[in-house]
Design goal:
By secondary structure, this protein is an alpha/beta fold. The protein has two helices and six strands; from the N terminus they run αβαβββββ. The protein has a single domain, classed as Alpha-Beta Horseshoe (Leucine-rich repeat, LRR (right-handed beta-alpha superhelix)), CATH 3.80.10. Strand 2 and strand 3 form a beta hairpin. The radius of gyration is 19 Å and the shape is globular.
């Protein structure tokens, strides 16, 4: 009887931890998506049918967006690689919400203004 009770409590604990981890990853993914969609809203495109205008959509995971790279372990955005994309605009403070971002390349585009302090 004690062994059955122990197994039951272990299974319940593992299920609780699993669900908590899923909820945590979902909110982190949502945070990354919100930050990138805010970044997109500050971008000006060189033509209306630019690839990022249609590819960066809430219909797909940010990890499948062009120029976005996620960690394999946590599925968090770790890199934005957008050189020579024909994009411009300003960089909003929301980009600082990408807490795992370690590489940010927007060279050879037409961004202007200051880098937000949230990137530090």
């Amino acid at each position: 009887m004690e062994k059955t009770w122990f197994l039951y409590l272990t299974a319940v604990s593992l299920a609780h931890c699993f669900l908590a981890c899923l909820a945590m990853n979902g909110s982190n993914s949502t945070t990354d998506q919100s930050a990138l969609l805010a970044f997109k809203s500050y971008i000006t495109f060189d033509h209306p049918h630019h690839i990022l205008a249609t590819n960066w959509s809430s219909a797909t995971s940010v990890c499948h967006w062009i120029g976005v790279f996620c960690s394999k372990r946590h599925y968090r955005v770790v890199a934005l690689n957008l050189p020579n994309m024909g994009i411009g605009g300003t960089i909003p403070p929301h980009i600082g919400n990408l807490s795992f971002l370690s590489y940010f390349n927007i060279t050879s585009n037409t961004f202007h203004g200051h880098l937000p302090s949230e990137l530090a």
